[in-house]
Structures are given as structure tokens and as C-alpha cells.
Q: What sequence folds into this?
């Protein structure tokens, strides 16, 4: 399946600030170990190195949120991780994003660390990033 970086950039721009450009997404997708799980209203971008994978971004259009789209994309990405031999998945999520934290925790992810003042905010102080991890060997398929 061909991934259109322009379509992903459009979804990202409508979902997340600051958004990633089509050029940035094209460059990421050209890297070894990077892939996207896509849907018409969202995508998750993953990067694998050896037996670890990182969730680079998960974007779901605002009008499609709270309908299981993010969960479905993540479940698809985790299934792909298993087929690719990944044993550990990790990501960073803003400490002020309880919805995303709830999604990731419901998938079995746990907090493994914190990056202080990681996310800049134009209208206030920087926000910590929580580092969440998932041991795929401990989670049923």
C-alpha cells in the first residue's frame, strides 16, 4: 500500500500542533524501519530499530475522535510490530494529554520515565513528556 505523505500531513495539521509537513513525513517514511498504519481519518507513524519500536506520532481527525479510531490504528501497529519481531514499544506523550494517556494505558503501556519540559507550549510553560513502554511479550496478541 502506498502512503501519501501529503494526505498524512493534512491529517496531522488538522489534528496536532505543531504539525509535521509533507516534506518532513516524506523524509521520515524514507528512513529504514519507518512505516505508517493508515486510515482515511488518521494514522500512526512507527520507527523500528532492532527489536524495539517507537510510536513517532498518532493523529486522528478531531471529528473522528472517541470512536475507537486511535485504538484501531494502535492495535494494527502493534500487530505489525509482532510480525516484525518487535518486543518493546515506547512513545512519549504530553503530561497534559489525558485522552492519549488513557488510550495508551488501556493498551497495556506503563510509564517508564519522564522528560521534563519536553513539549514547548506557545501560550504557557513547557510540558513534561511521559515515556510509556509496552513489553509485547507480556501482552496477549
A:
Amino acid at each position: 500500500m502506498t502512503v501519501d505523505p501529503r494526505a498524512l500531513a493534512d491529517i496531522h495539521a488538522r489534528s496536532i500542533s505543531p504539525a509535521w509537513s509533507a516534506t518532513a513525513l516524506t523524509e521520515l517514511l524514507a528512513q529504514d524501519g519507518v512505516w505508517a498504519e493508515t486510515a482515511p481519518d488518521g494514522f500512526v507513524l512507527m520507527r523500528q530499530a532492532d527489536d524495539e519500536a517507537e510510536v513517532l506520532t498518532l493523529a486522528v481527525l478531531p471529528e473522528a475522535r472517541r470512536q475507537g479510531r486511535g485504538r484501531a490504528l494502535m492495535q494494527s501497529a502493534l500487530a505489525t510490530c509482532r510480525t516484525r519481531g518487535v518486543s518493546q514499544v515506547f512513545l512519549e506523550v504530553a503530561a497534559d494529554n489525558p485522552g492519549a494517556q488513557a488510550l495508551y494505558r488501556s493498551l497495556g503501556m506503563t510509564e517508564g520515565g519522564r522528560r521534563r519540559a519536553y513539549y514547548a507550549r506557545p501560550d504557557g510553560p513547557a510540558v513534561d513528556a511521559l515515556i510509556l513502554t509496552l513489553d509485547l511479550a507480556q501482552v496477549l496478541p
About this structure: The CA atoms of residues 60 and 110 lie 22 Å apart. DSSP finds four helices and six strands in the chain. The domain at 5-138 is CATH 3.40.630.30 (Aminopeptidase).
